[in-house]
Amino acid sequence: MENVTTLPQQSTLPKRNPVTNEPPKREIGTPSSAWRSRADAWEFLGYAFKQLTKGGSGTSSHSGLQGQAVQALRLLQTIELYWAAPGLAAVASLRACLDSGDYDAGMEMILGMSVSPPPGQAGVERAASGAQDEDPREPQPAKDRPKFEVLFVDDISEHEADALKAEMLGQRRPSDAFTYELIVVPSYEDALVALVLNPSIQACILRPGFTIGSGQPLGRDLRKYLCGLVGSGLAGMPPLGRFLSLAERISELRPELDVYLVAGVSMEGLAGSLTKRFRRIFRRQDNLDLHLSLLSGVAERYRTPFFTALQEYSRRPASVFHALPISRGGSVGTSPWIRDMADFYGLNLLLAETSATSGGLDSLLDPHGSIKEAQDLAARAFGAQKTFFVTNGTSTANKIVHQSILAPGDVVLVDRNCHKSHHYAFVLAGAQVSYLDAYPLDKYAFYGAVPLASIKARLLAYRRAGRLDEVKMITLTNCTFDGIVYDVERVMEECLAIKPDLVFLWDEAWFAFARSHPVYRRRTAMAAARKLDAAFSDPGYAARHAEQAASLRDAVTGEPADDGLWMKTRLIPDPAKARLRVYATQSTHKTLTSLRQGSMIHVFDQDFSEHNQESFREAYMTHTSTSPNYQILASLDIGRRQVELEGFGLVQKQADLATILAQAVARHPLLKKYFRVLTSRDLIAEPYRETGSAMPLRDGLAALADAWRHDEFVVDPSRLTLDISRTGIDGDTFRHRYLADKHGIQVNKTSRNTVLFMTNIGTSRSAVAYLIEVLVKLAESFEEERPARKTVDAGAPRGATPPLPDFSRFADRFRRDPPSGESQSPDGDIRAAYFESYKDGSTTYLSAIDVTDRIAAGEEVVSAGFVTPYPPGFPILVPGQVITGQALEFMAVLDTREVHGFDPQRGFRVFTGKEIDKE
Asked: Does the predicted model carry a pTM greater than 0.90?
């Protein structure tokens, strides 16, 4: 959040100014997030100067407005260094106008300024006079071109900076696809601050003269965050070392940016050794080449091969003698009955509807042209080795990955609470399913995530039973529907120490946006895989493994030590044996820009070509339509472009807006009476949290980074679980009757006593303000209904919520080995159970009362199908699972309207005892 003030460190209140009797001014430091406060400050200055020009000098309101304008300028003084316009010079000029009382001049300046817009808003060309004026050679349409900013890092004078900007401005040509402006900062720290604050930066240029420390009054949070980025040995480094260090930090913060080096001498000797860190190296005199490279670098990210091909196709005349009567609008445009379809969707949609794979288009099932290029660009954007587009959602993406990896009989470890698509995939693959239980949040009626200790214990149990070779893969949801995020790197690292060839599938359906933020990114599958890949190449890592291995294995026999020691140890895999085989499935449409059902599969698999390429292709063919939706494919291409060009700013805004909403609920006297936003302390048990912050981002970027670096689980700040227990209303009723029907607010997930709100890259400040307004209105209505409505203590609205049911077990019939002490197997053949139900007479329906009676009588009742409340979409029961009283009790109080696989009229579909006992 925007911690823009640093309070005085005195233990007593500071004294007022003896002359003016005014309280002392608070020190203002550069915040760690400035998009909102900067926009507000400039907007307020426009308002203030407009009011001040109206006269009334000497009045209390007039002087009060002046004071507030001074505060706004003091804030801008700490951050305008990091934007190209209006810049520090404009701040100083406005302050002079304010001090001299020349408000008309100040107002004229503001009217001529262009302020870089907040994330998600279109840029406006600068109109103020100065070194950055539009080149008169440029035609007027230049104002419609996308505009970005370039960070130039060198300690030069203001005069030199103006000359540099003028030189680069002189390189502009009417044919340039984009325009840009330069930001000049003097130091290593200032460069990092600019990248944290200013999402408009698309490229960085480094020159030898930059210093290390910032001269700006950096806020405490920002200073602490920088401490985690800036090493202590920089002062003693040679210039080349500082170049490389800064380039690495830039890559960590904003890997999408192009970084250039401008060297003074001996550039030929540097060229061969720096290609991994810098896009190009230039001499100081190469301004034209530098200018063209800046535009080329952005153009490469701006490029959308398939979307562009589809646009070009739609503009060409064509006659259709093939499928799709709707193509080119043929069956719609001349119809008197369905012409309103064209009116609603527009002609472009119909012109772009085709089944053609030629003419610049491509085949999704066998891509060699524009789709392949688009997928390659997506792989680069998301840090994958390969990326595949999917046009029917992550449900299908999950099935593709599972079918490509798993063969009948392979054991897969999986969170029981993962999305139902995984469970159906196991049926298709014929895998032996070994369900893992996430920790329950019984008070709020949903699950967290699977502790690493549970995963290690299960793997060690298979090793102890001599079955570790049967375990093929593990599937986990990251992040969960409710925002619980794993430490992906640590999970993979410790699992590979036990099972070096384990395959990982991370279901990131709700986490595609995370790649765009430096703190979020570290917990994504692709980033963690790349980090481990680099670590495995480090000789020091191999040495650490060898040292640990000596303590974990018998020196003579080589047999593993007691499992208890393995459980207590932070395991290090053998880098010579571990294979990184990592897959991530993402619902692009859920958290990024894409049409519904647009998803991607990202792959980082060192053995893909050797072990999985053919099976993946066959699985992809199995589940992918031969008539893919081109509009979805084009939207995935566009969504990737947005990730690379503005993803950082949009995700920063998304998280900040959620924190603003949480703070509003916590601070408003009426809202906090009825609502409470659950924090990390509510959602993550203490053993899984090393850090103590309840809401890390509220405490600052440094606190967020600290928690995401150290805690086993963290909570995505953009997910807000609102506890509504005190309203006495259940979650489903609150969602439909109070939010959707009365106020048009859409949410997806509820539990018995919570409602989940999610901000996304499309959320606006006005939308957040409206939600706060609606919650206040609802709280006011609850107040008016008292004493008819009795405020409920923080608990559950209508009686206590029963404990969440863990996975019981598979019936013995569907287990590979029957119970026999230590060798008892937790996995079951879900495919056999699923297809057993196809046999005539094998199943029947029992009411909840009948099932309860049979269980009480000691009978074993086994589910014949999936029972899945939606949302969140994970099954309470699966085929072959023994039904328990705990599951029945939970089902009885479920308030979700949509429960797949359960017929409220007939009850539960279960196996007949006769079929279960049959060999």
From this structure: yes
